[in-house]
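Continuing the batch. This is chain 6 of the set; chains 1 through 5 are on the previous pages. Same settings as before, nothing changed between runs. Recording input and output for traceability.
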Amino acid sequence: MLILPIVNRKRILNVSVKLKDAVKIRSGVILEDTGESEVVVNGRKFTLSSYNNKDNDDTGVVDFIRNASVINKKNYFITTRENVDSNLYDVYAVTQPYSKVNPALDNLYASVITDMRKEVPGAERGRYLSLQKLGIDKYLTDEKIARLQEIVKEERNQSKWPKLFMEAGIADLPETLQFVDMFDCTVISDTTIPEDVLESTITALEPLNTKDYRGLKNYYNIAKTNEAIYKRLSAINNIIYNQPYKLIQTKKQRQKQFVKVKENHELGKVS
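Output for chain 6:
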């Protein structure tokens, strides 16, 4: 499980990050000619491709998926690791990724794919996700956000925005929001930590300089940098769409959203 720690209103939230359109279609199986931890796109396997090498480990799998889908953009498949007590594994069906925006976002997508490939059915383990380590902050600079705000404020005709964004070199900002919308980011229940409690614990352990101290300090740093990057995404969303950013939600909020979408869909069918 990929976990995004993030500071929010004096609390540390732990958020699971998954692909919205990834569906587990088989459990406890062995597919013919397909092993564990595999990515299969139109019959082609990632492990047998030239993209599977250590020098291109970060985004090689994303490049492979796009390249193998040029002609046919059907769903692709991911197999997990084998079960702890057998050679059986699970299988996911996944829709095609959004077009490339920048290497950092491809790193994010690759992180989620890798997490699915490393999943051991029945033995879930968490891995922390740092948006800064992926390099996402480098593409969300204050200068670019200020330019975005300037264009939106000066030009009220939204149909002209894409061209103006392109000319200003900030077309990637709205594209970033579209790319990130592929992910389901849900707060993990009963894992919230008061920020002041974490801070006092780190301070108390600092003289010991133990593995626990360094781990907690790193965890807190990840949460703070994730907060800073999320605030920039939220600012971009607010400038363009003039509404609150809702990428991260609780399970209750997501369920309410699902019910609302379903009701709107039913109303549409009736009318």
